[in-house]
């Protein structure tokens, strides 16, 4: 079992902070003892009738949310799930994501956050790496039948013994309907019952997030109950969230940005209301903002021009909106300057990573900082270094790689000991791979990345992973994928291919990669055929030279 409590058992290396640091975080009040699954119960005791969750016409008070997540948790236990089990959760922005997530937390099971666009390649990797015992999917989403994918995964992955479908099971009789779980009413267990589970410890593994790293397949980021709760709580305090706050989840709920920066988790921790948007369209968002009196929401930079254009066109009622967070990629300064005068709300820039460190501009920061920087760390205990290639600190204002450690930044990737030396310094700083300038105020300005990664509108694409799939094409003998600037997406992907015979088109490659089970957004936006790939003096592909091509 990987879900090791801090008392009575030794945590694995990737879940362990040094004793001195852990004691400091506890004594300073950063780390508490409340498991994440207790949040609905605590709020139900404080404000039982207050609206906690809204999904279309469906609404849950805090009392209803606590009761339903407890009931689902008991039903999951009845299926054989137990504390420490890993469960892949691949759901869009529907209430069932929140219900399943908190039910798993109550049980002490560990949700693995899969993105809605992931397909066989990514899901099978997650199942193998984690020994996941269950997989939660919608019936269909975005014209894709997830039940078929789940059946494939269950057949191929020995550990996955249970598929739970939100919606119609169809012909998949081996799957369990979430509606049946939801309406089951197993009796609460007596605390003295042998079957009763004490629940998770705050130091246990709580969830696994996907990294957008550079190693061919996604790495998994372990987050504990106490560090993730602090992440959400600290962000919520900076944003001034309280019971009167209404957060609109526009981006996928499984994103770290949407879930806890402060997002869904921070809002519920503060006793506010979470509204789920079924799609990221500004028309949908504006209708929900007006109807539910939304006070804060979060989008990525590619959505900002669409929001500005729709606002000019339809003149929506955005009078309740106080804060628009923009993150997941760098926001151009010129767009940043337009948000407040055109949308009538305060811009808050967000720069963070699922691995931990979160930076926010403050609501009372001068406009010059809000428009040109990506914020400063949320915690006084965040340790930040900006270093040159030799690892030496650089003066403020100079570009260097960002290194960090702190009370909510990981100390190691899940079941990946090989990354200890490449991604962490000997004294425990995480190498982010981001190139930044730090101002004397502590604010960071992101200028680029060391990592071989493409940030396509907030979707992180690992070039190495895509290259491996491209090399499986019968016409491709060599491949290199690089980022190219794009005014709408921030970056788009370009594949340079050495081929035998006519090169495949971008459309043909997209179909080929889709057939191999790769998420659609990872297909190259443009394909360039070249006679050979340029090499560095040590014989590696020279991607810098490829990026320099027009």
TrEMBL record:
AMP-dependent synthetase/ligase domain sequence ranges: 41-414
Coiled-coil residues: none
Any Pfam family the entry gives: AMP-binding
Domain AMP-binding enzyme C-terminal, first and last residues per copy: 465-540
InterPro entries recorded: AMP-bd_C, AMP-bd_C_sf, AMP-binding_CS, AMP-dep_synth/lig_dom, ATP-dep_AMP-bd_enzyme
Highest taxon in the source lineage: Bacteria
PANTHER family found in the cross-reference section: LONG-CHAIN-FATTY-ACID--COA LIGASE, NONRIBOSOMAL PEPTIDE SYNTHASE PES1 (EUROFUNG)-RELATED
Name listed for the protein in its UniProt record: AMP-binding protein
């Amino acid at each position: 079992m990987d879900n090791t409590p801090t008392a009575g058992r030794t945590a694995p290396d990737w879940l362990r902070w040094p004793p001195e640091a852990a004691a400091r975080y506890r004594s300073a009040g950063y780390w508490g003892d409340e498991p994440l699954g207790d949040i609905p119960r605590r709020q139900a005791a404080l404000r039982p009738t207050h609206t906690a969750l809204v999904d279309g016409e469906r609404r849950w008070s805090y009392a209803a949310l606590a009761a339903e997540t407890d009931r689902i948790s008991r039903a999951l236990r009845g299926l054989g799930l137990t504390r420490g089990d890993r469960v892949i959760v691949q759901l869009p922005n529907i209430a069932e994501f929140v219900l399943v997530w908190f039910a798993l937390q109550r049980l002490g099971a560990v949700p693995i956050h899969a993105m809605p666009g992931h397909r066989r390649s990514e899901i099978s990797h997650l199942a193998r790496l984690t020994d996941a015992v269950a997989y939660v999917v919608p019936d269909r989403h975005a014209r894709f039948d997830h039940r078929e994918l789940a059946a494939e995964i269950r057949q191929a992955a020995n550990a996955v013994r249970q598929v739970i479908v939100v919606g119609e099971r169809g012909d998949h009789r081996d799957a369990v309907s979430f509606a049946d779980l939801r309406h089951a009413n197993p009796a609460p267990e007596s605390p003295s019952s042998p079957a009763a589970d004490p629940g998770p410890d705050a130091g246990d593994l709580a969830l696994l997030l996907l990294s957008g790293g550079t190693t061919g397949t996604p790495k998994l980021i372990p987050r504990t109950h106490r560090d993730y709760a602090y992440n959400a709580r600290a962000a919520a305090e900076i944003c001034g969230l309280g019971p009167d706050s209404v957060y609109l989840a526009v981006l996928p709920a499984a994103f770290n940005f949407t879930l806890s920066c402060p997002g869904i988790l921070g809002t519920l921790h503060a006793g506010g209301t979470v509204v789920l948007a079924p799609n990221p369209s500004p028309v949908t968002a504006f209708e929900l903002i007006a109807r539910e009196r939304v006070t804060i929401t979060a989008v990525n930079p590619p959505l900002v021009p669409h929001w500005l254009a729709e606002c000019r066109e339809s003149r929506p009622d955005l009078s309740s909106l106080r804060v628009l967070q923009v993150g997941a990629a760098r926001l151009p300064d010129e767009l940043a300057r337009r948000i407040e005068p055109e949308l009538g709300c305060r811009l808050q820039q967000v720069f963070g990573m699922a691995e931990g460190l979160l930076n926010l501009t403050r609501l009372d920061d001068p406009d010059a900082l809000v428009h040109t920087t990506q914020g400063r760390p949320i915690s006084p205990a965040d340790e930040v270094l900006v270093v040159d290639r030799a690892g030496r600190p650089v003066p403020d204002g100079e570009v260097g790689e960002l290194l960090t450690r702190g009370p909510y930044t990981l100390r190691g990737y899940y079941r990946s000991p090989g990354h200890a030396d490449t991604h962490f310094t000997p004294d425990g700083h995480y190498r982010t791979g981001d190139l930044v300038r730090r101002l004397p105020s502590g604010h960071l300005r992101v200028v680029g990345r060391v990592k071989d990664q493409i940030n396509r509108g907030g979707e992180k694409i690992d070039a190495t992973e895509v290259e491996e799939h491209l090399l499986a094409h019968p016409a491709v003998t060599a491949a290199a994928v690089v980022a190219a600037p794009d005014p709408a997406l921030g970056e788009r992907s370009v594949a340079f291919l050495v081929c035998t015979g006519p090169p495949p088109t971008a459309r043909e490659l997209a179909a080929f990669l889709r057939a191999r089970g790769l998420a659609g957004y990872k297909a190259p936006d443009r394909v360039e055929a070249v006679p050979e790939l340029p090499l560095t003096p040590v014989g590696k592909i020279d991607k810098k030279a490829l990026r320099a091509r027009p």
